[in-house]
Amino acid sequence: MTPSYLAQDPTLADFGRDPWWLVLGKIVFAFAFGLLATLLGVWFERRVVGYMQVRPGPNQVGPFGLLQTLADGLKMAFKEDILPKAADKVVYFFAPTISVICAVTALSVVPFGPMVSIFGHHTPLQVTDVPVAVLLLLACSSMGVYGIVLGGWASGSTYPLLGGLRSSAQMISYEVAMGLSIVAVFMTAGTMSTSGIVAAQGDGTQLTIFGQPIPAPGWYAILLLPSFVIFFISTVGETNRAPFDLPEAESELVAGFMTEYSSLKFALFMLSEYVAMVTMSAVTTTLFLGGWRAPWPITIWEGANSGWWPMLWFFGKVIALVFVFVWLRGTLPRLRYDQFMRFGWKVLLPINLVWILVLSGLRSIEDWDSRGKMIAVGIPAGILLIATLFWPSRRRQPKPTTQEQVDSRPYGSFPLPPMDLQVPPSPRITRVVAEREPANIATGSDSREV
């Protein structure tokens, strides 16, 4: 007998049957979700970082400062729009628009919930789905970088150009690792449809532990822990978030690709960054955290995965991932460019290739579809990966003493105080004494001695 929650899973056959007004309503809902999540995301980041840095954050405009982001948007709308003389006017205008459109388009194939009834129509809480929906997500993620690259090139300035070049190299480096991470999801789920991947993470299998049957965790974040870790690191790099915000590094590029932008165009770039952060959090939830499915122990309730309740679990997971994005920004310093590229090509890519090779070999073993065996391999491999990433690359050298630091400095580089902390006599006092008592100075005696 099919469980009740499996009956709520949409299939590809359930799409394309909705009336036009329902499809339009879903599109408006997805766009409103991205826009509203961005407005609240800016406020959320300021409040969380303020809490981490022991300061209040926005708390004046509206209750708890909720309207501060709206006030900032109005301020940007009325600021002067400056166009550099050397800019390519057409590309300069459309570059921020490309970034926003690509970030919002990815939400069209993200499932927000199961099959529900809307005004008598049984429809999935998803705009659309196709057999290669995950490839559409990768395409939107890749195309979004074009807005940054074109914006930096069209500004006609050095700093934006360098930021655009960094963004292109960043996209190439981390898009490869992201794509390889999703390969493990394809192999396990057997489909590229987002609704199918969510359904595959809740097939209701059970494990037997100490003679007691318990529901097996079906989330790919547990079964494919190495892929989940690498995918999330790659999403941070794809969204240009700290510590991978090298295209807009203030320390060496002023503001990177956004240096010459102002007013609403600057606001669109900020909007695209936060929309991309929310979108990638939703994609990570769909591919690795069970999508709209309720986490344990909420699953004990039979109606947890039916009706409109799954939207609550989906939004909760997205907010948790956005918190991790903010946590990283408030905790980690920005990487150097050479460290960033080395990490992508020499660490994430080889580990991902080895993990896919191991997973392919294990899946060829008979009865490999057992969730127990996947957990027995995926969790230790993920722990080993995390330990490898955070293991110190070289042995720490002992801290040199103060005298060793002084001896290592070149002579005459800058004045140094005496090491015995004895202040030498003032040159003015020495000169006065020499003028008054030249004989005593010459003989080495001091008239002040009693």
Write up this protein:
With 450 residues, the chain is mainly alpha-helical. The protein folds into two domains: 20-335, no CATH class; 347-393. It has helices at residues 20-52, 68-77, 89-105, 133-154, 158-189, 194-200, 220-223, 225-238, 250-253, 263-288, 309-331, 337-363, 371-390, 402-408, 427-436, 438-443; strands at residues 115-118, 121-124, 206-209, 212-215. The strands form two sheets. It has a two-stranded antiparallel sheet. A two-stranded antiparallel sheet has the order 3-4. β1 and β2 form a beta hairpin. α1 runs parallel beside α11 (309-331), α5 packs antiparallel against α8 and α10 (263-288) crosses α11 (309-331). It is globular, with a radius of gyration of 30 Å. The termini are far apart. Keywords: Cell membrane, Membrane, NAD, Quinone, Translocase, Transmembrane, Transmembrane helix, Ubiquinone. It is found in: Cell membrane; Membrane. It is a multi-pass membrane protein.
Provide the fold topology.
Layout: H1 20-52, H2 68-77, H3 89-105, E1 115-118, E2 121-124, H4 133-154, H5 158-189, H6 194-200, E3 206-209, E4 212-215, H7 220-223, H8 225-238, H9 250-253, H10 263-288, H11 309-331, H12 337-363, H13 371-390, H14 402-408, H15 427-436, H16 438-443
